[in-house]
Design goal:
This protein has helices spanning 35-49, 68-79, 176-206, 227-230, 234-239, 246-251, 303-307, 309-318; strands at residues 2-7, 53-59, 85-88, 97-102, 107-111, 126-128, 137-139, 146-152, 158-164, 211-216, 263-267, 272-276, 279-283, 293-296, 324-327. The chain is an alpha+beta fold and 330 residues long. It has a single domain, classed as Deoxyribonuclease I, Chain A (4-Layer Sandwich). It has a six-stranded mixed beta sheet with strand order 3-4-2-1-15-14, with helices on one face. A five-stranded mixed beta sheet has the order 5-8-9-10-13. Strands 6-7 form a two-stranded antiparallel ribbon. Helix 1 (35-49) packs across helix 8.
Length: 330
Amino acid sequence: MRLSTYNIEWFQALFDAENRLLLDDHPSGRHGVSRGAQAEAIAQVLRAVDADGLVIIEAPNTGRRQSSVDALEGFADWAGLRTRSAVMGFANDTQQEIAFLFDSTVLTAEHAPGQSARAPRFDGSFEIDLDVDARADLVRFSKPPMELLLTPRAGAPFRLIGAHLKSKAPYGARSPEEARALSITNRRKQLAQAIWLRGRVEDHLQAGEPLILMGDLNDGPGLDEYEALFGRSSVEIVMGAELFDPHARQLLRPNVQGLPTTARFYDPDSKRYFQALLDYVMISPGLRALDPHWRIWHPFEDADCYGTEALCQALLQASDHFPVSLDLSL
């Protein structure tokens, strides 16, 4: 079985208010890429990855008239994908949903949110002292994680959590001082979300339930200078000692060369691209016995992607993130 996570930049911009796909020359949410070109590129990437189930970060919007599920199933039908069934978790107000596209002949997927004393349901609020002032703060997810029960047609059920943690970027800052203050505030909130998410991870581990956690965690060990103020990255908090992702574990080793990356962004000030490892697929201990194999579909770092010119270009046009896949022998 192959599962994958993919942050598709402003996927929602490719659909109208009736969930119809817009295949035209008008600008998409990606700079310099038309809606038609981005849609074609996404379709080509998803056909190449050929996952049995796919967590989509920044999935199409769900609102008064729009439906992420309807948009995704329509897109899958147009693109000729075998993953033509969709399910999502809690809707949010950002126009960037978290959803799961899957092949119903291989598995079933059910939204199954849970809660405990240490980890409320993801659409609720979490009480934690963010700034060490002895007063509790209430934290909410702007994009509540999606918690699924997956049942393979051949194999035992397992849990999957799809997450998109808060960005640390100081959007809207008007000075270096304001950028620093906003970055620290955003990191506090992100760490609180990571602690909340870790609580649900521990719930599943203690219940003996196989678990996969995947998505865009917007963080990684050593990613920025503010991490030293808090001791650990969000990734380290969520992963703990039990969950495993080889790319995340690689970052924890000192002085390692050729570190993996999953996202590529343009910096208009320096006029250069920079890369980061932001997207992860973490598995619980029992799943490591199923011969797991991870792959980052990076257009320049993955030899097969780089050697296939059409796929390489599609990956660059489709999104500023690249898919990460996990193969398991069930």
